[in-house]
Amino acid sequence: MPTMPLHTEFDSIEALGAALRQGKVSAVELADSALDAVQARSDLNAFLHVDAELTRAQARTADALLSQGRGGSLTGIPIAHKDVFVTRGWRTTAASKMLADYTSPFDATVVSLLEQAGAVSLGKLNCDEFAMGSGNENSAFGPARNPWDADAVPGGSSGGSAAAVAAGLVMAATGTDTGGSVRQPAALCGVSGIKPTYGTVSRFGMVAFGSSLDQAGPLARHARDLLELLDPISAFDERDATSLPDCDGAANKPGRVRADFDAARSAQQGGKPLQGLRIGVPAEFFNEGLSPEVAQAVETALQTYESLGARRVEVSLPRTKLSIPAYYVIAPAEASSNLSRYDGVRYGHRSASYGDLADMTSRSRAEGFGPEVLRRILVGTYVLCHGYYDAYYLQAQRIRRLIAQDFQQAFADHCDVIMGPVTPTVAKRIGENRDDPTADWLADVYTLGVSLAGLPAMSIPCGFSGSAKPLPIGLQLIGNYFREGQLLAIADRFQQATDWHQRKPEQQ
Ligand code: GLN
């Protein structure tokens, strides 16, 4: 059985950071042991690209800073990036044949901010092609596997990120969430993940899928570690047209997000109990599609919150079901536009044989994109075309507005935070929905509305289903705009009182 990497002996990024600063462990030692573990767990197919020399170079820089007493909160901490964040060092494929040989001339903002904070990257993580999917099965490089059960999906699209954290290969990982891709794999792999408010983390250098929905977010073992990653990446970026200036504390004003992070940190110091917190529980999240085990685990988690002083109130999100058709019109529409750049000319795959220019483009695209991506492009082009634009695209945008209003109504009238399941079931078997591509779309019902509304939300482990090979269950926490600090504090309270997030999969 392969040995676990050194960093797994530490309970948190804070504890590991302290050991690094005290010289009890070095960044190079950590990097080497993590690289060994990544190799030993190649069965998980969590990593698409590893370059030991690049990783060691980052670790040496971290050690040099630490020896001068200049290490920051993430200096020397081993992490890895979903392969939709472009990186100068490692290839960036978005898990697509289209970009199989692509290396970016620049780093994504998220990548450079984490590097500036001192984190050491172990490489690039598997995901669904162009982040389209819910099981990591749409990767052109094969599915990543769930560390709890190798025959189960790790979730998607940030499946490699969740699998790598769950297997202990990294302390934390980056992911992206367009309709649930941080929260859902976090839930299915038993780790914690947060999708921040749309606009608070730069999209610059993230391979685009649905630009009005795409948002980066970290995955880690628990809420405290998530805060360590989310804080440095929540910053205004003029290279992202939808980046929100208000979230940058460096502009000499606290900013709404940053003020909330400060509150989360003081809550960690033992402050604010949950007394009086109103938890909104939407009736529509407990419908016929929800499996009894997930319903039971979420119910138990809500009871735990009540025992900690919170109060449960019923809320209604009446358009929950409509989030599926609205999302699966808007996201493909934006994808069809974003993916038009892959034309075989500028970059990406070019067919080996073709006639004229149009033939070259269509052959290159047909060969370069996988079936799910082609499906989205077809749907997206259809709903945007002249005769159908009003009936589908415009209508979906109207529904999107109503969904956002439903959340605002709930927050204004009834509750401080909303809780419910992340997914209707635990992780499915690899290959289970092969003949029914839209079955996966329906399983996104609890995560899509949040994305359409641009709200922050997270997933934390709250139970397991099954005994021989138990599969994790996630609890979803949804906050109002810019309240990610509040969410992290509320999640932390739960994790101080329970140990679901500490359970580890046995190596198989
Ligand atoms: N499962 C959703 C989809 O396939 C969400 C993906 C994501 O958030 N990137 O589009």
Instruction: State the secondary-structure class.
Output: alpha/beta
Largest sheet: 11 strands, mixed
Shape: globular
Could you tell me the number of beta strands?
11
Ligands bound, unique: glutamine
Give the helix proportion (percent range).
25-40%
Distance between the termini: 9 Å
The CATH topology of the domain at 6-273 is given as: Amidase signature (AS) enzymes
**CATH secondary-structure class of the domain at 6-273:** Alpha Beta
Description of the structure:
- There is one protein chain.
- By secondary structure, the protein is an alpha/beta fold.
- Helix 9 (292-307) links the parallel strand 7 (278-282) and strand 8.
- The chain has an eleven-stranded mixed beta sheet with strand order 1-3-2-4-6-5-10-11-9-7-8, sandwiched between helices.
- The protein has helices at 13-21, 27-40, 52-67, 109-116, 159-166, 183-189, 223-233, 256-268, 292-307, 323-338, 357-368, 371-384, 389-413, 437-442, 448-453, 484-497; strands at residues 47-49, 78-82, 120-125, 172-177, 192-195, 215-220, 278-282, 311-315, 417-421, 457-465, 471-478.
- The longest helix has 25 residues, at 389-413.
- The chain has a domain at 6-273: Amidase signature (AS) enzymes (Alpha-Beta Complex).
- Bound molecules: glutamine.
